[in-house]
Specification:
Radius of gyration of chain A: 22 Å
Largest sheet of chain B: 7 strands, mixed
Oligomer: heterodimer
Shape of chain B: globular
Number of strands of chain B: 11
CATH topology of the largest domain in chain A: Rossmann fold
Number of domains of chain A: 2
CATH superfamily of the largest domain in chain A: Translation initiation factor eif-2b, domain 2
Helix content of chain A: 40-55%
Strand order of the largest sheet of chain A: 3-2-1-4-7-9-10
Distance between the termini of chain B: 43 Å
Number of helices of chain B: 17
Largest sheet of chain A: 7 strands, mixed
Strand order of the largest sheet of chain B: 3-2-1-4-7-10-11
CATH class of the largest domain in chain A: Alpha Beta
CATH topology of the domain at 259-391 and 420-454 in chain B: Rossmann fold
CATH architecture of the largest domain in chain A: 3-Layer(aba) Sandwich
Largest interface: A-B, 18 and 21 residues
Structural class of chain B: alpha/beta
Number of strands of chain A: 10
CATH superfamily of the domain at 259-391 and 420-454 in chain B: Translation initiation factor eif-2b, domain 2
Shape of chain A: globular
Strand content of chain B: 5-15%
């Protein structure tokens, strides 16, 4: 990809992609590492210029990524760190070096956060526990594998359409020898009574104490609350975000296309239900059968229809029991206290 | 909870405890502290009863009404929180009267006249500002009058008026010989402050500001020449106003403004100076939204807000509080201001705000409270009646429609009618979605982290 209007040929997004190739590194960490590199590569002469350059880099990453929220959390954390860093270095170049090193050090340390969290979660997992989890999360996987070493657990994983990430989790768990069953997204309520508690990862934990995670987490939290099962969220501290969504539709990922109704076209010749499917056949490569007969064959949504659906949702803080993070086990209110303490001033 | 002010014959400790008067006969040791106190009051009142009987004229707003009204405070003490202070002990004769009224018909009439408000009377009815006791500076007297006649209303406005008055007082102040400014000025200011409080109970904002002023005074350098010290104090007051109110409002304008999107329907209640600024700023930055202003009597403050917003070109709808249920379905966000906010996250604001917040919560509409950090009070308040203020009776809020004669709508006490007008109520933290302050957007359960955030800034 060619560089976009940056002074050097440094393309932050390409660097970001590079870092993401390592499976252990999640988007926020990759963002921090890319920004750290951006520091060194930039030719800013003053702190102000540097922060400007970093902000521009962060904007670029957000723009080009499909899922900007967790990325944003990492970027903001790093930029805040850079701004507050005590300036001991004699010249600016040295300072930049130091900042870059700190960035890398943080990223390496951050990988170990997951182990800390897994250890904290261990105390809440009893022997013979039945756990429900959603989609794919590295930190949840680590926690489950860690628990498996000393306890017997069984896990239900949701399929998590449309990306089907739940299958990834299922494969990883089965490979480790943990009894694991895939569950339809729509069967969460059905299975909830069998489950001891729910464990999910997170894209971001927000200032209200709520959780942003793959779509389906909110549903799971509401059902868990109704069934009186604890709902635990695992989140590394770099995922704590100062965002404060007032509702689902207040998320930065929400755009007018999501859940919009199609503009009505005239009823052309054909089945009264069929027109929408008939036109889609021609335009998309979606797995829609060409015969619109309602046979027992499975059907799936087209890409266009999937695009009208959200990728993440927001879970309110009153539905979450505890948030496990490397800074400790926090209640949703505690998350806000931590964030205010960290970022205020 | 005590029932609404009915004029049925109740023994004063009837509503909540239901103890028969016969129980009062048990020995002092067996009585609870309350009962012992009651007994004491009664005995004291019996002595004072003869002289006081003459004073029980028709209850009107003013001193005579104070006594029966405050006398109702004793029975309501049982229902009120233990935290509230004991009401004045003088008119405890009405307890005795109430008890005697059961037996003697002659007292019945006097009792009816003496019956005051059964609830909320523990914070006393507003009295007209009496003539200044002691050396009250004219600007303080004027400010007090503006407060008591409700010409200046709103937590921010009152605080700014108080501080501005103090600046004048400080500049006019001359240290008496053999005294230092830092010590004497405080004693000089105390009667001024009491005069203001007598006009209208102190708001949390005034309280916090005055505490800061006192801190600055006591910290002022003894060696400074007097004029320099006074100038320094005035500068500090200016800084306080600028930083904690004006600039804080600007930050809140921006933060809360970001929560307003195109095509939103914003609902607001009565008139909050901060919310007004937020809406005007959001409109000025080009967002297209409409506003529903909900208002209520007797103050009808929403009309001023309506005038400001429509003048700026914002599409507004104006409804009274009872119509809230019909409009809430179309609302995207509720934006309200606050008089003060407590450690447990409860918001103390104009009476009616709690209704709006609860209704919004029921319909899953987010409730956003805009509140500067200097409104933060370290106390915890659990309900609306441990601390409140009653609006004075009479033709204060000239907000009547023109087609009705003024007299028909003026509120006034009559022999069988008591007017009850609390000015504030408490919104529980569960109904609030977010509190926007100048240190950030905070969920209501974490309001106690504001001092931490402030500690960082200072």
């Amino acid at each position: 990809m060619s560089a976009v209007a940056q002074s050097t040929a440094f393309d932050i997004y390409a660097t970001f992609q590079q870092f993401l190739k390592d499976d252990e590194i999640s988007p926020p960490l990759a963002a921090i590492l890319s920004l750290a590199e951006a520091i060194v590569k930039s030719n800013a002469g003053t702190m102000f210029e540097l922060v400007q350059a970093l902000n521009d880099g962060a904007e670029e990453l957000k723009r080009r990524s499909q899922n900007p929220i967790s990325l944003n959390a990492g970027c903001e954390l790093f930029i805040a760190f850079v701004t507050l860093f005590p300036h001991e270095a004699d010249n600016f170049a040295e300072l930049k070096e130091e900042l870059e090193q700190q960035g890398r050090k943080y990223a390496t340390e951050a990988i170990s956060f997951r182990d800390k969290i897994a250890e904290l979660a261990l105390g809440f997992i009893k022997d013979d526990a039945v756990i429900l989890t959603h989609s794919y999360s590295r930190v949840v996987l680590k926690a489950l594998l860690h628990a498996h070493k000393t306890k017997r657990i069984s896990v239900y994983v949701t399929e998590s359409r449309p990306r089907g990430l739940g299958l990834k989790t299922h494969d990883a768990l089965t490979a480790a020898g943990i009894p694991c069953t895939l569950v339809l997204d729509s069967a969460v309520a059905y299975v909830m009574d069998r489950v001891d508690f729910v464990l999910v990862g997170s894209e971001a934990v927000v200032e209200s104490g709520g959780l942003i995670n793959y779509v389906g987490s909110n549903q799971m939290a509401i059902i868990a609350k109704a069934a009186n099962k604890p709902f635990y969220a695992l989140a590394e501290s770099y995922k704590f975000h100062r965002l404060f969504p007032l509702s689902q539709y207040d998320l930065p990922t929400h755009n007018p296309n999501i859940l919009s109704f199609p503009t009505p076209t005239g009823r052309s010749a054909g089945h009264s239900d069929a027109p929408s499917f008939a036109t889609l056949d021609a335009t998309t490569k979606g797995p829609v059968r060409s015969e619109t007969s309602w046979s027992s064959a499975e059907r799936a949504m087209s890409q266009e229809q999937i695009a009208k659906n959200p990728g993440v949702d927001y879970t309110r803080p009153d539905l979450i029991s505890l948030v496990f993070s490397d800074v400790g086990i926090l209640t949703p209110e505690g998350v806000s206290q931590y964030l205010v303490g960290m970022f205020a001033g | 909870m005590a029932p609404a002010p009915l004029l049925e014959v109740h023994p004063p400790n009837g509503p909540s405890n239901g103890e028969a008067p016969a129980d009062q006969q048990k020995s002092q040791k067996q009585m609870t502290k309350q009962e012992r106190r009651e007994l004491q009051e009664r005995q004291r009142a019996a002595k004072a009863a003869k002289t006081a009987t003459g004073a029980n004229g028709k209850p009107q707003g003013g001193k005579p009404a104070n006594q029966p009204a405050a006398g109702g405070g004793a029975p309501s003490r049982k229902t009120a929180d233990a935290a509230s202070k004991l009401p004045s002990t003088g008119p405890a004769k009405t307890i005795e009267k109430a008890k005697a009224g059961q037996s003697s018909a002659a007292d019945q009439l006097a009792k009816n006249q003496a019956r005051g408000l059964l609830i909320f009377s523990h914070f006393g009815l507003p009295k007209p500002v009496s003539s200044a006791k002691g050396d009250i500076h004219p600007v303080i007297a004027r400010t007090a009058l503006q407060f008591s006649s409700f010409k200046i209303t709103g937590a921010n406005a009152r605080c700014i008026a108080t501080l501005t008055a103090f600046k004048t007082v400080i500049q006019d102040y001359v240290t008496p010989p053999n005294n230092t400014l830092s010590r004497h000025l405080m004693t000089y200011l105390s009667p001024q402050i009491s005069h203001l409080v007598a006009a209208r109970p102190m708001s949390v904002t005034m309280g916090n500001a005055i505490r800061q002023v006192k801190l600055d005074i006591s910290g002022s350098d003894i060696d400074l020449p007097e004029q320099d010290a006074k100038d320094a104090l005035c500068r500090k007051i200016d800084t306080y106003i600028r930083e904690r109110i004006i600039i804080a409002d600007q930050v809140i304008q921006e933060t809360a403004g970001n929560k307003i999107k195109d095509d939103d329907v914003i609902l607001t209640y009565a008139r909050s100076s901060v919310v007004e600024k937020v809406l005007l700023e959001a409109h000025a930055s080009g967002r297209k939204f409409s506003v529903i202003v909900v208002d209520s009597r007797p103050m009808l403050e929403g009309k001023r807000l309506l005038a400001m917003l429509s003048e700026a070109g914002i599409a507004c709808t104006y409804v009274l509080l009872p119509a809230l249920g019909s409009v809430i379905g179309e609302v995207s966000t509720v934006l309200v201001g606050a008089h003060s906010i407590h450690t447990n996250g409860a918001v103390y604001s104009r009476a009616g705000t709690a209704l709006v917040a609860m209704m919004a919560k029921r319909h899953s509409v987010p409730v956003v409270v805009c509140c500067e950090t200097y409104k933060f009070s370290e106390t915890i308040q659990l309900d609306s009646f441990t601390k409140n203020e009653l609006a004075p009776l009479g033709d204060l809020f000239s907000s009547f429609p023109n087609n009705k004669p003024r007299e028909s709508l003026t509120l006034e006490n009559k022999p069988n009618l008591e007017i009850l007008n609390p000015l504030y109520d408490l919104t529980p933290p569960t109904c609030i979605t977010a509190v926007v302050t100048e240190v950030g957007v905070i969920p209501p359960n974490s309001i106690s982290s504001i001092p931490v955030a402030l500690g960082r800034l200072l």
